[in-house]
Amino acid sequence: xxLLTKALQENGFSKASSGTGYFNPSSVKEGDxxxxxxxxxxxxxxxxxxxxxxxxxxxxxxxxxxxxxxxxAERATELGGKVRPDTKPKQxxxxxxxxxxxxxxxxxxxxxxxxxxPLIAALSDEEVEAExxxxxxxxxxxxxxxxxxxxxxxxxGRRRKPAIDAPIAEAWDKVVKEGFDISVxxxxxxxxxxxxF
Length: 197
Prior knowledge:
Layout: H1 6-11, E1 22-23, E2 33-52, E3 58-63, H2 69-78, E4 82-83, E5 90-99, E6 104-110, H3 113-124, H4 126-130, E7 135-142, E8 149-156, H5 162-177
């Protein structure tokens, strides 16, 4: 194997292909595409917002239901922070996914409507809803900063082929046996550590 793969030589290193347990859509650069499939049959949803934490650092916090101003103030006090004057909670959605680029189970959390709406529409289709693992999705981006826009398209799933599905199913079974629980994300936990955070 050469020191640098052809893909690295041609495309450079993409943050979207990082080896972490989380896939962050903001890491998708213009011109990049990341293909994934959803794993399991559970998701996490709620509301998130950023507080000014101790020492002026941003602090992300989540709620199951849309928080009132009093809820946000109470949480900020608990965490030793302050509610930012312009703070508006944003709804988020998270799934366990298989990221084909890094060949790894990851948590895909997002709050952008341009990502959520196409995924919700595709997953609401009767055929996809019955077997969501047979569909893949591809996310790409255009623009940058506040002008960044995401595109999500649904594709026929690669997991229809047993040779591709087998290692994905094996990796998913492994994280599930290790205690993976997407629901703990809402309370600030690490889904890969499950209820043991």
